[in-house]
């Protein structure tokens, strides 16, 4: 009987020290190959080939639709035009990817050879003869895959793969000349004397109409009268108005000590300082304001400072007061840029 340290014999000792087991087992070899229907029936093979060809062609058409929609259906200034543009672009991209993915997967599973081959290990540097054999094996594999006999299918697949990147590159290239002036985020429509109106009914708000615990979605007066750029201005100027018990407010002053609220009524930008999602989930008992995208949480009673989540700075506060008629008006624009932080976020 050999010992555990005897490496010269092809036997091994049991863990309990009794009996012997062979250290090597006979190679069972490959399992018997089972041909698929497409391997034995030419009609099935042709039918699958036509189906894959149709899927690749559909992908090509999807890419063309994306490029056409990008130029022919710009988002425009209305919600309806944006919805149509995004819908066509999304469907086109879906058709591109699904056509390539399903067609390629179907071809591999049904038409390409599914035989298993074994190549014995050899030295890293093969002989010239072995290399010639390997090259011939690659050629035979290409022939076995059917690619050399299915020119139309190969052409459609290559064309689909070649055109698909255009559905991503064209919109990117088209945005090269767009307006990237981030300084526009430093100013909004709010200015001294601008009344606070309800969103979307566009009614002015009296301070007496706002009770403790109320939450109002607010836009600046005159927003709906803009002919162009209304959506852009609204995206920057949206405000959430909340009335708290004045005794619960920890801080309601600017860095210079000015009061920015009115009898417990405070107004803050709805644009999250993390990535710009609309912050609108208010918890009355804790006075916390939650962003639904990434759960950044702000304390309305304490200048909307961040109490949880990835946001790095408080929501900008809109200074408000009342006019002679008792309507809520802005004292000025936001004192700092709204929205996420960016590389030129200076307050002046």
From TrEMBL:
Subcellular location(s) of the protein: Cell membrane
Q: Where is this region: Disordered?
A: 1-44
- Transmembrane feature ranges: 52-73, 85-108, 152-174
Q: Residues in domain Rieske?
A: 236-329
Major subcellular site: membrane
Q: Which CDD domains match?
A: Rieske
Instruction: Say yes or no: keyword Metal-binding present.
Output: yes
What is the annotated signal peptide range for this record?
Answer: none
Query: Which cofactors, by name?
Result: [2Fe-2S] cluster
Any idea which GO molecular function terms this record carries?
A: 2 iron, 2 sulfur cluster binding; metal ion binding; monooxygenase activity; oxidoreductase activity, acting on paired donors, with incorporation or reduction of molecular oxygen
Q: Which UniProt keywords apply?
A: 2Fe-2S, Cell membrane, Disulfide bond, Electron transport, Iron, Iron-sulfur, Membrane, Metal-binding, Oxidoreductase, Respiratory chain, Transmembrane, Transmembrane helix, Transport
Might you report a single GO cellular component term? plasma membrane
What topology in the membrane does the UniProt record assign?
Multi-pass membrane protein
Q: Which family does it belong to?
A: Belongs to the Rieske iron-sulfur protein family.
Q: What does this protein do?
A: Iron-sulfur subunit of the cytochrome bc1 complex, an essential component of the respiratory electron transport chain required for ATP synthesis. The bc1 complex catalyzes the oxidation of menaquinol and the reduction of cytochrome c in the respiratory chain. The bc1 complex operates through a Q-cycle mechanism that couples electron transfer to generation of the proton gradient that drives ATP synthesis.
Q: PANTHER family, alphabetically?
A: CYTOCHROME B-C1 COMPLEX SUBUNIT RIESKE, MITOCHONDRIAL (PTHR10134)
Query: What is the protein's name according to its record?
Result: Cytochrome bc1 complex Rieske iron-sulfur subunit
